[in-house]
Design goal:
single chain; 8 helices; globular; 230 residues; 80% helix; Growth Hormone, Chain: A; 2 domains; mainly alpha
Length: 230
């Protein structure tokens, strides 16, 4: 949310910064790229041992590929078969969630003709409401049952998809954004908790790295399908 606010200020306040509208947009893209590059650098230089043991490869990329191969063909007794199933489900769900969030903004622009500041307000609203949703689902998963929390989140997504069909005004759009945010925060937190619980000891980094890559791939396929249909 912080990066989004700064990037938006670069675009909307381009006159004060002595930039043209196109220059403000380029500056926003440059800032966003630098922001994510900054947080990606530690992972790029991370090393796992000296590469001479079976437990880890010498680089993060090799470690991730080796772990993916072990999940693709799990051996009996290694305990990776349940993790493979949990990871596959989490990748599909989180990929669909991220696609829905991204396309929500596109539909808001095209169907309801929101301007830039209004769209930013809508996105920030989603980010703000997602936090209590995540905390509530996390409490439910810890105190009652994680499968129940996952079921509630998936049912919530069904409600969001059905409600989206009937949205025909900006007021309805904001209501859908609140509901979307509540489910967004909850489903992401509970799915990642399920993956963490299934991850083998000493492989948490590789597990979540693979989850991130798979989620992006699933999101790409879902976005492509959405574009082809829409």
């Amino acid at each position: 949310a912080l990066a989004l606010v700064i990037a938006t200020l670069l675009v909307t306040a381009h006159d004060r910064l002595g930039l043209s509208p196109a220059g403000g947009l380029r500056a926003a893209f440059l800032f966003t790229g630098g922001w994510w590059l900054l947080f990606s650098l530690p992972a790029a230089f991370a090393r796992f041992g000296d590469g001479e043991t079976e437990a880890h490869a010498s680089t993060s990329g090799r470690e991730l590929l080796a772990f993916a191969r072990s999940l693709a063909s799990p051996q009996s007794g290694d305990g990776l078969a349940p993790l493979a199933a949990v990871l596959a489900g989490a990748m599909l769900v989180l990929g669909a969630v991220q696609t829905a969030i991204a396309q929500f903004s596109s539909v808001a622009l095209e169907e309801f003709h929101l301007d830039g500041p209004a769209l930013v307000q809508l996105v920030l609203l989603v980010q703000a409401v997602a936090l209590p949703g995540a905390l509530g689902i996390g409490w439910l998963a810890a105190r009652v049952s994680r499968p129940l929390a996952i079921s509630i989140c998936l049912a919530g997504w069904v409600v969001v998809l059905v409600a989206a069909w009937f949205v025909d005004s900006v007021r309805h759009l904001y209501g859908l954004a609140v509901l979307l945010a509540l489910v967004l925060g909850g489903v992401q937190s509970v799915m990642r908790a399920a993956v963490a619980d299934a991850a083998p000891e000493g492989r948490s980094g590789a597990t979540f790295g693979l989850l991130q890559v798979g989620t992006k791939l699933a999101g790409f396929v879902a976005s492509f399908a959405f574009g082809a249909i829409y």
